## 1
Amino acid sequence: MRHFILGALALVLLAGCATPPPPEPGSAASKIVVMGKFKGIAVGAIRVARENGFLTAKVQLSNITSSNQTMYYRFAWLGADGFPVGDEDTWKVLNLYANQATFLPAIANLPQAADFRLEVKTP
Amino acid sequence: MFARFSILAVVAVLVSGCANTSPVLGSKNINYGDTKAVETVTNEFGSTDLQMIAESMTRSLAQSGILHGRPVVQVYDVKNKTSEYIDTREITTSIKTQLMKTGTARFASDNTDMQSQVDQLKLQNQSGLYKKTTVSKTGNMVAAKYRLEGSISSIVKRSSDYKDVFYKFSLQLIDVESGLAEWMDEKEIRKTTER
């Protein structure tokens, strides 16, 4: 009985330490890269389209707290081979009011961009 | 003899152990930073403002679809209507560079390059110094289909607790033949300092 309890306890501890599974390729989560800390803001739906030859993206962001939040972000544009195209984007600041939901629009730097990553960080 | 050799060997080992293997030379107080970082040192016009304006305007124009068939564009200096000194040529240079990289437009010599262009054509055609087959002929310069011009203005408000600076950058693409503005966009930036 004692061995069973110890075994069960070990299993619970191991499960608690397990890293979450990686996001599925192509999913919204797979496009978000958290740089260190990212708290109080949730990433929702992502819309990607090609307009006049350029990849465009709209990312839904929601402030899930009852206080104003500031976040830093930038898009990293990737070619069909998964490697970056063109120069890196500038880091930008986004302020979100309490419980505000907004869409973050972006246009790719070059027509060769086929995919993107959104790098995010809160102060 | 053995003792002397041992001391020399120990000194050699110690010296080689202390050799500087770092590729850095000079003061540790000086660092290279991220050129794309958000700069908030003061609330005057800064590198992040310049980069954000250039990025936003270039992408909006390139993706608008107006630049069909890589038209020739003449870029004019951005008018500085703010109370600050801003090197607006750097804004136009960044926009021009980024548009060039997208491959959506070609650029005619602007007002600052024109004199050098004319001087070079005159030198090639009038000096008699060059082999005729290699001389660039006059009368073949490509005229601009569009001109790109913009302005930046600011509203500055101060109180005992706050300083608020609001920048508005406007850019428009005008068809030279018709005089019609075919594309326009704005970028607004607000910077607030709490004292």
## 2
Amino acid sequence: MKKEIIISGFGGQGVLSMGKILAYSGLLEDKEVTWMPAYGPEQRGGTANVTVIISDERISSPILSKFDIAIVLNQPSMDKFLSKVKPGGILIYDGFGIINPPARKDITVYRIDAMDKAAEMKNAKVFNMIVLGGLLKVCKIVSTDGLNKALYKTLPERHHKLIPLNMQAVEEGMNLIEEVK
Amino acid sequence: MEKKEVTLMKGNEAVAHAMIRCGADAFFGYPITPQSEIIETLALLKPWETTGMVVLQAESEVASINMVYGGGGAGKRVITTSSSPGVALMQEGISYMAGAEIPGVIVNVQRGGPGLGTIQPSQSDYMQATRGGGNGDYNVIVLAPASVQEMADFVDLSFELAFKYRNPVMILSDGVIGQMMEKVVLPPIKPRRTEEQIAKECPWATIGRPSSREPNIMTSLELKPEVMEEINIHLQEKYQLAKDTETRCEITDCDDADYVIVAFGSAARITEKSMEIARKRGIKVGLFRPITLWPFPEKELRKTVAGKKGILVAEINAGQMIEDVKLAIGNSLPTAHFGRLGGIVPDPEEIVNALKTKLIDNE
């Protein structure tokens, strides 16, 4: 198994930390992992993306031209990465702020309205975990159990009380995601 | 056996952890993107409370390297880290260290230039690193990590080499390797050397003069040319020994290959993927990755490429290491270069395309 994933959105949406939790979950399941951010002077509101590779074998390039899975969370990300999904690959997007929905027929497209769900849960910070839940529903890269463990490992102890809420967001994301046909 | 703990961290963070664990006495540095996580991680780990290691943010890179000079002169394991424009500022100090035979480690997490350039990754300091960089006939041993694990492992190795040769050693990394997170097993913990150990292992160090010997003097200045020539000859003998014994490289899938891509650091990692793509298309290609950029693994390269159809040198610069490749193999094979500039990192497909258009199509 090898999954090459790009996660892209606005800075402040939790794109980098979503990638980190995913990578750490992979590590806990004894997989090879690489997390490569596009770093820059951007802050909240700018664009942010991260490449996460999870594999049973040694990982070669951290820089990729094509991806198995693209998670796009705003229109600029859609414009940039839609064409970079491998044929037969997966694209997941949040409908919020997307003006031009993807029109490719050779990939599987999923929509997850995580922004709306986070607003409904009255906690914008769990947005990325809702998206992550959606991803794990459609592609079981790591187990939810592994994800739970990764949260305990990566978050400082003072934030551990928030983990059940984050896992609830993952659950919500799993129920929310739907294929666009 | 002790179970090794696997953690996930950035290359920069791994460097910070590794220096504490391998018994470094001091870090002097100044923040600059894309290497700031090194000093940030040190501030977080507070090694001055555990191993007693000094961590100091100097007022500039010029100050940092001269602090390394001072600490190294006292036989201490001292390290500084920066990125391209900062390392440019350090060149005078590095030259003085080479001249005075002072060990020390410099990490360059490269970004694109010239000048202030960009904060994005680049490999355009290859020439500066491998040709000494400052004034005078000298060389710095240069190691090029291609993974977070090597970022961690090369710190202790650099100190070992620096003290073995009494010379500066540089880890030439870049924004890709510094910023990416991978699995890493941190090196074993070594205690810092005691004053007695330093006195025994570094008889040249300026650590206070016992009545039994003349004062140790650390300087690069010598006004009598006949003496200065002797000093230079001694340095050259040292460099020759390093050339004969310290070259390192990694050779992947070259045995059956028609073409060999020569690449170091992050470009070598990207090339690994290019190889997968090329081989799926029926192009037999291998990778030669120099790990020591100076001394350059010339003999190993000559042996690896003998009888091949051509060489592509893939670098994230305008064509620097290709000169060493050509010095090593002469005109024995068609040799082409591929690079991206100014902070653009090539993707694996671009390297495959370059192999095709620059070598295969020209046959």
